[in-house]
Amino acid sequence: MPITSKLTVKDSQLDPFGRAVMRELEKRVVIGIPGDSMHPAEKGEVPISNAALGYLFEHGQPEKNLPARAHLVPGVERIAEEAAARLKAAAAKALTGDLDAPEKALHAIGLLGVSAVQQEITDRAFAPLAERTIKGRLRRGRTGTKPLIDTGAYRRSFQYAIIRHNISHDH
What we know:
Blueprint: H1 16-25, E1 27-32, E2 38-39, E3 48-49, H2 50-59, H3 72-78, H4 80-95, H5 101-123, H6 131-139, H7 153-156, E4 159-164
Antiparallel strand pairs: 1-4, 2-3
Helix pairs in contact: 3-5, 4-5
Organism: Methylobacterium radiotolerans (strain ATCC 27329 / DSM 1819 / JCM 2831 / NBRC 15690 / NCIMB 10815 / 0-1)
Protein name: Putative bacteriophage protein
């Protein structure tokens, strides 16, 4: 659900400033869980990455009786309008010479997005945990029954990164 637009420009038509603006506009912010963020395995369990867990939590796995508990997509959707407004303002600033504005906006959007996803995990009413899961938590000394929150490590594993995403243009 990225916010996208299409722009076709020939590099030969751009002056150095225009090329610098285009380089800034090629940056994107992504919000999620790094693939190397590991969930600590319980005794007898195979280790799994938090990113893999996130996919399972977001989409569910009916054959394993795991309901979908969407939190990443709704969290990012929650900030979409504000993100678009920040990007629009940053693009306008870039066109007037402030080439740092787009990246600053992306960092702000990344922080907003991570916070919104974490808030979704905290606030959203998810399908309740299975009795077996609750009993497992109790055996480990955990008393909470809120889905997606056990130790808090999963919730804290969300991050953002700024990446370069090439815009189609002629050379």
